[in-house]
What does this fold into?
Amino acid sequence: MKEKSIELKTEIPGPIGQKSMQKRKEYIPQGVYNLAPLVASKAEGAILEDLDGNKYLDFVGGIGVLNVGHNAPKVVEAIKKQAEELIHSCFHVAAYKPYIELAERLSKLSPGPTPKKTMFANSGAEAVENAIKIAKKYTGKSAIIAFDYAFHGRTLMTMSLTSKVKPYKFGFGPFAPEVYKAPYAYCYRCPFGLEYSDCNLKCVQNFAEIFKRDIPAEEVAAVILEPVQGEGGFISPPKEFIQGVKKVCEENDILLIADEVQTGFARTGTFFAVEDYEIEPDIITTAKSIAGGMPLSAVIGKKEIMDAPQPGEIGGTYGGNPVSCAAALAVLDIIEKDKLVERSNKLGKKMKVRLDEMKEKYSIIGDLRGKGFMLAVELVKDTETKEPAVEVKSEIIDECFKNGLILVGAGLHSNVIRFLAPISITEAQLEEGLDILEAAFAKFA
It folds into this structure.
């Protein structure tokens, strides 16, 4: 009999957890949501434990934050060591070694031959905000183009770039000006109603027409895109689409910003997802798995572009905190030593085989997509009409949680299940989680 990682001792949530959730409801705004009704107490690898001692398999990973796993020992050690030496000085007051070393390593890891520079902030949204500021400063232009289905954050600018109204934008307008949207290469739901074999990259042609339709190229500072859209439902476009967008940008003196907040750090089977598309972005934003759970984000860009802002025009009090930077250096060591890029591909192939088998059995799975260990299934009521199966998606996620597997949804239509388990997960744990998922499909699909 296989050894199980999941261990459920009480009802879910248990009695201790229920008391804490009551306090949570009393003192914490409902807008700060929870995926699952549990209160975590500790974690290790791909296992999350609640206050009642119940152990769950985590296929969410802090929403893409824990590629190296919960409480990776080398990350914990680096945090402790740095905390004993220097917790904060503010980089604007006194520079420190972890910031400088991490900036050097990420600048060198960024794809392409052009020399790079790196700055740090705290969150993915802050990274995108700063990338937009840098692009505007460098180009002297004010407009930004984003894509349908995109998610870039919840601040004013990043919310303006984001394409899902509820829950991210509803009631929070007016939004930042000079933001324009173009159709993304969502091949399963082609915005032009074409089959992939017949499309001839209509989405790239349409993107180029935005300069005639909505905004002159002379006023556009940057185009921002996710190489694989995260909240949009892990939409993974053809290589030719990303390359086509890059070419249009180059022809019109427009910067290309690759938002790698969710795709970076080995998740897609390359260190950065854009490597697979064989392009060199002008700027990369990243966060989430950069520091193994510590708050940190980065903007990596070509030197000339990054040096456009003058001293004091970018940055922040906590940006590039020394403890977070030390954690990030440990993450880079783990990715290299444990070969997490190769492991991402290996686990992704293994998972894709199982999900393909489920797709054959259960017609509710309309599409399976993603790159590396960043995979998702889109659920539909009918494979011909592709009507979103929102209710069944929720039932499957709830059923999995009751059996100890934590999952998260996504997609404009809220009918996608995305998988972001730590890349450090064991193959036995992956199989255990997939068995629970398949049982849920068998019950509800």
Summary: The first strand starts at residue 40 and ends at 44. The chain has a mean pLDDT of 96. DSSP finds 15 helices and 15 strands in the chain.
